[in-house]
């Protein structure tokens, strides 16, 4: 199970995020009323997807002994006909064949975050009492 804790901070839309030993802040840009203290939630989601793809590709290449020097992923989201669309651009450096590159792209699409976003993920929201303590 993976768990994070999020709580509002002193800024208008800012959120303090605690995950394992890490502390980060999410916010909205000034253009929409935020204080721009950190990445937006959508940017964090895209970063999670890009990171997951890159890690999965690196792990697979290591197991196969393929010479992947660097994995670069640029992810962007936009809306087409009221549908969210994410495009991930993957660049692989290293002396790889076209077949290896194609296989690594396929493997990147099997990362846990990609599967979560494209699968049948259910989200259950439970309203708790303010004195309830959440544990990780």
Structural commentary:
This protein is of the alpha+beta class. Helices cover 31% and strands 26% of the residues. The protein is built from 3 helices and 5 strands; from the N terminus they run E-E-E-H-E-E-H-H. Helix 1 packs across helix 2. The model has no long low-confidence stretch (mean pLDDT 95).
Short description:
Helix content is 31%, strand content 26%.
Strand content: 25-35%
Task: State the helical fraction.
Answer: 25-40%
Number of domains: 2
The CATH homologous superfamily name of the largest domain equals K homology (KH) domain
| Physical arrangement of strands within the biggest beta sheet | 1-2-3
> What does the largest sheet look like?
3 strands, antiparallel
What Rg do the Cα atoms give? 18 Å
The total strand number stands at 5
- Write down the CATH topology of the largest domain: GMP Synthetase, Chain A, domain 3
CATH architecture of the largest domain: 2-Layer Sandwich
Task: Determine the N-to-C terminus distance.
Answer: 9 Å
CATH class designation of the largest domain = Alpha Beta
Low-confidence stretches: none
Shape: elongated
SSE sequence, one letter per element: EEEHEEHH
Overall pLDDT: 95
Overall structural class, as computed from helix and strand content, comes to: alpha+beta
Number of helices: 3
Observed structural traits:
three-stranded antiparallel β-sheet; alpha+beta; elongated; 5 strands; 2 domains; 136 residues; GMP Synthetase, Chain A, domain 3; two-stranded antiparallel ribbon; 3 helices; 26% strand
């Amino acid at each position: 199970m993976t768990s994070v804790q999020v709580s509002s901070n002193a800024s208008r839309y800012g959120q303090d995020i605690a995950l394992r030993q890490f502390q980060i802040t999410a916010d909205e840009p000034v253009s929409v009323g935020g204080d721009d203290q950190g990445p937006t939630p959508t940017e964090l989601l895209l970063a999670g997807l890009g990171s997951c793809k890159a890690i999965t590709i690196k792990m697979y290449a290591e197991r196969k002994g393929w010479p992947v020097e660097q994995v670069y992923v640029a992810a962007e989201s936009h809306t087409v006909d009221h549908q969210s669309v994410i495009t991930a651009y993957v660049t692989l450096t290293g002396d790889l064949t076209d077949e290896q590159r194609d296989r690594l792209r396929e493997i990147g699409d099997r990362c846990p975050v990609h599967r979560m976003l494209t699968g049948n993920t259910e989200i259950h929201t439970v309203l708790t009492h303010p004195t309830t303590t959440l544990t990780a």
